[in-house]
Amino acid sequence: xxxxxxxxxxxxxxxWKSFFRGESVGTNVMTKIFKWFWIAYFSFLTPLIxxxxxxxxxxxxxxxxxxxxxxxxxxxxxxxxxxxxYFIQPVPNVSIKPLLLTPILKKKIVRDTLxxxxxxxxxxxxxxxxxxxxxxxxxxGYNMNQLIGWSLAIIAFVYITNYLNFLLNNxxxxxxxxxxxxxxxxxxxxxxxxxxxxxxxxxxYSFYANPVYSILPWLFLVWIYFYVFKFFKNGxxxxxxxxxxxxxxxxxxxxxxxxxxxTSIFLKNDLRLIKRSKRARSTVFAGVFFLFYGxxxxxxxxxxxxxxxxxxxxxxxxxxxxxxGSFVPSWxxxxxxxxxxxxxxxxxxxxxxxxxVVIGTIISTVLACFIYSFLGTDAVFAVLAGGLxxxxxxxxxxxxxxxxxxxxxxxxxxxxxxxxxxxINMKTILISLPQMALPLLLFWIGYNYYSILIGCLIxxxxxxxxxxxxxxxxxxxxxxxxxxxxxTLKAYKKT
Amino acid sequence: MITLKNITKKYSKExxxxxxxxxxxxxxxxxxxxxxxxGKTTMFSCLLDLIKPSTGRVIxxxxxxxxxxxxxxFTAAFLDDTFLIGYLMPEEYFYFIGELxxxxxxxxxxxxxxxxxxxxxxxxxxxxxxxDLSKGNxxxxxVVAALxxxxxxxxxxxxxxxxxxxxxxxxxxxxxxxxxNKETTVLVSSHDIQDVTEVCERIVLLEKGKMIKDIVTSxxxxxxxxxYFKGELL
Lengths: 495, 234
Fold this sequence. Notes:
Structural class of chain B: alpha/beta
Largest sheet of chain B: 6 strands, mixed
Shape of chain B: globular
CATH superfamily of chain B: P-loop containing nucleotide triphosphate hydrolases
Order of helices and strands of chain A: HHHHHHHHHHHHHHHHHHHHH
Largest interface: A-B, 32 and 35 residues
Strand content of chain B: 25-35%
Strand order of the largest sheet of chain B: 6-7-8-3-9-10
Number of domains of chain B: 1
Oligomer: heterodimer
Largest sheet of chain A: none
CATH class of chain B: Alpha Beta
Helix content of chain B: 25-40%
Number of strands of chain A: 0
Radius of gyration of chain A: 25 Å
Distance between the termini of chain A: 36 Å
CATH architecture of chain B: 3-Layer(aba) Sandwich
Number of helices of chain B: 8
């Protein structure tokens, strides 16, 4: 056993060195702190949600039988969970390669990899939810023993999704199939053609009705564990499981963009980037979730007040800007020396990046207008004002911050969209904080002294003024990019 | 003409590059040799304004590279894979570079097709992105991209490394052809003294950032360089 302890210590030492000898210890520490902050936040929030689920469903949403309702919707919860895992939960893959030539048994490598995932946050959080929920349900008169059986079944399903994720890894098609199937099920349900959840609901409810059935998902879990184990062990060769998958390439012409002149040269590449780099694609995908940000505050308008509701609308159109835009020019980090030696004027380069961000914001704004049109004209005005502000002010701020955000983006690493130093790190979010504070202040001034509409008007007009000052602002941004050129090149080189 | 004046590069106390004066006349095929850490890539990076020298100036055909970006319109380079855009197909990459240098798609096609031999059928018309090509094939694409648009100055760092023997021979021919018209200045670095003596008219030997030798290539050059590097060993 001694040898393993020794290995463990060596491993810890390596981790320590990689952490403190990295390029940006400061960022590392900040990211770690924020990561733990989020984990603590969710560990607090999740049990709370578990406690109030029943009450909120019953009283606020007037659901007759919340437990039945819960069971009906579990199918969506689990699918959503799979998608989240796919994008966020890292599957160790490349890190295994150097271990192959060490005297560690392959069995052990696989067992450890699969074993470690048991304690992943994505699994533990289920316990945080289920225990308070169970306690609350007992209070509401549900049978304890039956509930224990039901919970055990749910936990088995959580771990089944955990191991499914290993199989799903790098298989976009399978993910999209799951997504599309679920979407069609939801559509059929929405138009009351066929309600699949009636069946899935009674399926999950059966674990409560007959707790003995819970053994079945556990048996399935054991089977899938061994399946994944075998799958992984057989894949431990650099030409099979550990090989990077190469996509078949197809030329994308995009010559319709040529009418935009020199700007289009870069725009074309950025579109290809989004299409072909999983990292970029996932980032854009993550930005889509921002569209629904407005609802969070809308439904709690009486708690947060109109200013925070406005904040939600502002965020709704900013998904692309905050997610993708914050990594300009880092998206070009892998070939920045090329960009710096080609016959490119900084102005064209910055302009094309700005255009991309603006196009993304326009699309988001239009979509958000459509989504929030159900909430009345005030909401649409707020979304429009937020969109204009995002285009006219935040676009510049993001580009400007980009000159100083020297994060190397590894376009080929498919995982780690969130979390980790290389991903949408907390630094990005910190930069975006002042971008949020100013419009809120402007809105508050207008709203406080006049009305919500005037508040929107002030924010929107500020955005328009920003757009008009384009050339002047570009000059300032270009100056920042030029003065940071050498250190940016250096930082990008050191991954 | 490219002129380096009092170029030094220091990292804390270590001097990695120290060139008092170096003139490279237009049309010359210039070779840079030296062991690892001799400062070859650093010198090229300074020429391309990718690294800011601690002191000194680089004048590329009348343009001070640190003051103006004017040199970019007539200079092209391929130093390493950071000059490749991994998610593009080779064709798209060539078009991109061509567009930046004011060429139309058709002109790029015509130019690139000359190198069919060099590509050995592994670059054009394939179904791979640059990121999925082998190191050698990536280098082929990068070198050819650097030649698009008839730049007056071409800088290639270690162009022969990672290439198979037939491709090496073809690349030497390409470089020789470039220098034939006496309009293109070609700067090449290499670890392989034989390759450099074969293609370059003039060879500069760097050692710890300093110019040790500056030779006009003659039949004796290879021997001279060999004995120098042997001496290093002894």
